[in-house]
Amino acid sequence: MAKRIGAEGSFAVAEAVRLADTDVVAAYPITPQTPIVEQFAKFVADGVVDTEMVPVESEHSAMSATVGAEAAGARAMSATSSQGLALMWEIVAATPGLRLPVVMSLVNRTLSAPLNIHCDHSDVMGVTTLGWIQIFSENAQEVYENLLLAVRVAEGPRIQLPAMVNQDGFITSHAVEPVEIFEDDAVRRYVGVRSMERALLDLKHVETIGAMVLPDYLLEVKRAQEEAMSHVFEVYAEAGRELTAITGHAYPFFETYKTEDADAVIVVLNSAAGTAKVAVDAMRARGKKVGVLKPILFRPFPYAAVRDVLKNVPVVGVLDRSMDFGAYAPVYSEIRNVLYDMDKRPATQSYIYGLGGRDIMSTEVESVFDELLSGTVDPEHQRYVGLRG
Fold this sequence. Notes:
Strand order of the largest sheet: 3-2-4-5-7-6-12
Helix content: 25-40%
Number of helices: 14
Structural class: alpha/beta
Largest sheet: 7 strands, mixed
Radius of gyration: 21 Å
Strand content: 15-25%
Shape: globular
Distance between the termini: 53 Å
């Protein structure tokens, strides 16, 4: 059975970490991630969980402690945002190569400078090349369920890689909305117990974690890491089917909304996908066939499956909440990669929106759709939604 409560996205994370029987949580508070740490600290103080919570002095230390706990054989998690992720970069980069299935909640916030504490995706897009599984969440319900799913995927014997579960800072992390919380015993059976395989405290099977690798073998190590990443699609689907038996919800690599007959499709991550769906309904009511594709599993990226959805769409617009200066925007780059090998490609247009937490309204998304349908696209140059003149 499930109970329906009003909860913020930050509470959804803390609740999922509680249900996952997490052994160690090491984190440092940073806006807008702080409520996650506060709520979980309450669980610890009230005896609701038997978790070792480590209040470290910095985000770098947070990920260091998390890695140490995972290497020892514990199920360990952390959470951060923005500059916190940047400060722990050294250890974030090392974690996939150590093959440790850390799960981290990333509450997306813009990177300084200038200083801004609100949402965009510049933090997560800075670490897409490091080897973390990356899952994006439109709302608090998805945050809760995606974190449980991430535990199963990251700890899968064929995977053993870390995973980030993303949500939009303040927009999702601090907004109260209905969330279904599922029965403790069922969820705990689902997540299971962290395997001691490759654990430093498994004294019967002694291993080295984090040895130095010189030029003779680094290529082979990284090739094995890529092989593990290639198994994520299968393991994600398997774990998703099992979670469906508890929640009744599906766990696709991406969500499509009214794309089947669409003359124009917008691709957009996280909370803005909900705004885009409202715009789709408004446009459809006026007889305009438009749709939305929302990536969920972003690393690894499901190129072939996305290509199959977009192959017959005349024009595709991509809304990015971050920039790659001097290059195509991150999500737009992935969609261009998706379409590259097609003999007849959809027209494409890149849009930048919402930097530093600026709202995007459904009427602005409708204007983007109108522009796409008009055929006035320029695939080589990005445009800006709501840019002041």
